[in-house]
Design a protein that fits this description.
Oligomer: single chain
Pfam families: AMP-binding, AMP-binding_C_3
Protein name: AMP-dependent synthetase and ligase
CATH topology of the largest domain: Rossmann fold
GO cellular component, one term: membrane
Number of domains: 3
GO molecular function, one term: ATP binding
InterPro entries: AMP-bd_C_sf, AMP-binding_CS, AMP-dep_synth/lig_dom, ANL_N_sf
CATH architecture of the largest domain: 3-Layer(aba) Sandwich
Helix content: 25-40%
CATH class of the largest domain: Alpha Beta
Shape: globular
């Protein structure tokens, strides 16, 4: 595709070529769904764009969106772009302090308030003078509403253009290591990423299979923004469904019957644990090994998850245990791991039928260059590469090599066939009292593969050896009051400790496994909005107990 064509050009072309094709399907409560065709989507965006321009904002002004995934997120972003402005999306689970930081740091001129669960707690973070517009599914407010504005405003005409180097969005990182950073993304970068993911999806599915997706991972993050929103705006041949709520997720999946399903390791693990809660792993394994019956059982399991129509399944955002990938593939689901980050619009590496292996994140996407530095760090140059960190020129300069490769901070190995393996993150490495560095991520992958473990963290800075803290599987947690169940968990975790230690070098051996007192969540600050663990937060919370654990006896401790 010619580099001169940008994302808005694709959108105008799709609205002209197939105006009546349904693009977005939004649940609105009570089992009802509202469909938006390409013509309706673009018409609403044009009307809102005209309204935004009428407010007299200067070109490039920042317009923020605070909302869970919904059809109007897509429309608002298109309106912001058509009007000549830049999107600043805020994670819908952020606390008021972070909402305030992002709005102030970005210099936002207006805020779209959308579908939210904790708006009353977030509202104090919004400057009182900041104008606000409410999406149709927003909490009850007295703000001017989207529907009222588009009803009274004529559409912006023509084909408003943006330059390839103009700023399309500021994506604020989820802050797993501190204050969020604003990654500057140009229209050229988001277009190239959207083209790449659209082509990748169509190649996986072929020309005859309909592309249906469920959008539920946060659109404020580059993973969903590039893989779902940008790819479908560019491709024009997909049908995007949205989830209504957490407790309707399986219903939403059944409605969408996705042919493409993108998730993160924690959710792939929770799906597996949900299956194991209904059927013991040993029994399922035995049934899957029986000819003919095994295929029937596998299909029934996938149908129960709403994934029986999936032809392309992907995992990203964090490492996924190789055993978990192998388990899904045994069910007949072609689950492939990918690798990317905000700084390359998630457009970096992906697996496919020819190049894939559990434990590897795939090969470089078209146009992506990769190499390993002398220190073992992965260096990437991507067509989707960001323009730098907003208001942080020193950090931007330090993040690139002299020849323009981004320093990812991840450690890795590159095979001769191009398959890339992530071996850890440089900033996560810690040194024990013996002077040896420990890479926690590979050890955590081994722990997370156990059906009793939902999440884990490996730590032990300055200690004689490392330790692991685990969150038990959701189905197990209510049973911890039963002494028999608790004893079984203790025995199995003790065995897990032995098994893991046999698979890692002696200097990475775990001294113990500690069972977390409560699950880690976004709400209690232990997970980022993309469900990565916040190491510093968790380590600080248990710092006072660590010495007691090391002086105690036994392989398993309870926090």
């Amino acid at each position: 595709m010619p580099d001169s064509k940008l994302i808005l050009d694709y959108v105008y072309d799709h609205a002209d070529a197939h105006p009546d094709q349904v693009f977005l399907s939004q649940p609105v409560g009570g089992g009802k769904v509202t469909d938006y065709t390409w013509a309706q989507t673009v018409d609403q965006a044009r009307r809102m764009a005209a309204h935004l321009q009428s407010r007299g904002l200067e070109r490039g002004a920042r317009v923020a969106i605070l909302s869970k995934n919904c059809a109007h997120f897509f429309m608002a972003e298109l309106a912001i772009w058509m009007a000549g402005y830049t999107t600043v999306a805020i994670f819908p689970t952020e606390v008021a302090e972070t909402v305030h930081f992002v709005l102030e740091h970005s210099g936002a001129s207006l805020l779209f308030v959308g579908k939210l669960d904790t708006w009353e707690a977030q509202k104090p973070g919004v400057p009182a003078s900041l104008p606000r517009i409410a999406f149709p599914l927003a909490p009850q407010t007295d703000y001017d509403t989207w529907d009222a504005i588009v009803a009274r405003t004529g559409p912006l005409g023509g084909r408003p253009q943006r330059g390839a180097n103009e700023l399309a969005m500021l994506i604020y990182t989820s802050g797993s290591t501190g204050q969020p950073k604003g990654a500057m993304v140009s229209f050229g970068a988001i277009t190239r990423a959207g083209e790449g993911f659209s082509n990748y999806t169509r190649e996986r599915l072929g020309r005859e299979t309909e592309i249906r997706l469920l959008s539920y991972l946060p659109l404020a993050h580059s993973f969903e923004r590039s893989c779902v929103e940008a790819s479908t705006l560019v491709g024009g041949d997909a049908h995007v469904f949205f989830a209504e709520a957490l407790d309707t997720f399986l219903t939403d999946l059944q409605r969408a019957r996705p042919t493409v399903f993108i998730s993160v390791p924690r959710l792939w693990l929770k799906f597996q644990q949900g299956v194991f809660a209904k059927m013991a792993p040993e029994k399922l394994d035995r049934l899957l090994g029986i000819p003919i019956l095994g295929r029937i059982v596998a299909k029934k399991v996938l149908k129960g998850l709403g994934l029986d129509q999936v032809r392309n399944a992907a995992s990203g955002s964090a490492p996924i245990p190789p055993d978990l990938i192998a388990w899904y593939r045994r069910l007949g689901l072609k689950l492939y791991e990918g690798y990317g980050m905000t700084e390359d619009n998630s457009f970096s590496h992906g697996s496919n039928e020819k190049f894939n292996e559990p434990g590897y994140v795939g090969v470089a996407m078209p146009g992506v260059q990769v190499r390993i530095s002398d220190e073992g760090e992965i260096l990437i140059k991507s067509p989707g590469q960001f323009s730098g960190y907003y208001k942080q020129p020193e950090l931007t300069a330090a993040s690139f090599t002299e020849d323009g490769f981004f320093r990812t901070g991840d450690l890795g190995e590159l095979r001769a066939d191009g398959l890339l393996k992530i071996t850890g993150r440089a900033k996560e490495l810690f040194k024990t009292a013996k002077g040896k560095y420990v890479a926690p991520a590979p050890i955590e992958n081994l722990l997370n593969a156990h059906p009793m473990v939902e999440l884990s963290l490996v730590s032990g800075v300055g200690q004689p050896s490392a330790y692991a803290m685990v969150v038990l599987a959701e189905s197990l947690r209510p049973q911890m009051g039963d002494p028999n169940v608790r004893a079984r968990v203790q025995d199995e975790l003790g065995q897990l400790l032995q098994d893991v230690n046999q698979q890692v070098p002696e200097y990475e051996h775990l001294r113990m496994i500690v069972v977390a007192r409560e699950p880690w969540s976004i709400e209690n600050g232990c997970l980022t909005p993309t469900m990565k663990i916040k190491r510093g937060r968790i380590e600080a919370a248990v710092a006072a107990q660590v010495e007691v654990w090391y002086t105690g006896r036994g392989p398993v401790h309870w926090a």
